[in-house]
Specification:
Elements (H helix, E strand, L loop, with lengths): L9 H16 L2 H13 L2 E2 H5 L6 H13 L3 E6 L2 E6 L2 H30 L7
Antiparallel strand pairs: 1-3, 2-3
C-alpha cells in the first residue's frame, strides 16, 4: 500500500492517502484523540489537551497529522479551534481489515469445532 513507483496516478495518490491514515492510527495519542472526539463530540484544542500529559505544541503536532490524514477537521470559532472527527477514512481501513477479520473468524470457528469433537476429560 505504499505509493512507491506508482507516480502521480490516481492509484498512487489513493495509496499515499491510505498510508497517511495508517501512519496516523499507528500512534496511541492520536488514537486517543480520535476516541475522545468520537465519544464526546467536537472539542476545542484546550479540552483535548486537558486529557494528555504533554505540552500543547506536542498535541498540535498530533492534530496536524490527523488533519493531513483527513481524520479530523478544524473549524475556527473566535479564538478557538474546534476539532471534529471525520470517520470516512476509517471506512477504508475497515474495508482493508475485513478479509483479516473473516480469516480469524474462520480459524476460531475451526478451533471451536475441534474442541467440541474432543472428549471431555472428567478424570479427577
Amino acid at each position: 500500500m505504499t505509493g512507491t513507483g506508482v507516480g502521480n496516478t490516481a492509484a498512487g495518490l489513493r495509496a499515499a492517502d491510505e498510508d497517511r491514515v495508517f501512519a496516523a492510527l499507528a500512534n496511541a495519542t492520536r488514537r486517543e484523540v480520535l476516541r475522545l472526539l468520537r465519544d464526546e463530540g467536537p472539542q476545542p484544542v484546550q479540552a483535548l489537551a486537558d486529557h494528555f500529559a504533554m505540552r500543547r505544541p506536542s498535541l498540535s503536532e498530533h492534530l496536524k497529522v490527523l488533519r493531513e490524514a483527513g481524520l479530523v477537521t478544524e473549524q475556527r470559532s473566535g479564538r478557538q479551534r474546534i476539532y471534529r472527527l471525520e470517520a470516512a477514512p476509517l471506512a477504508e481501513v475497515q474495508d482493508w481489515l475485513h478479509p483479516y477479520e473473516r480469516f480469524w473468524r474462520e480459524r476460531l470457528k475451526g478451533l471451536g469445532d475441534l474442541l467440541d469433537r474432543m472428549p471431555d476429560d472428567d478424570r479427577p
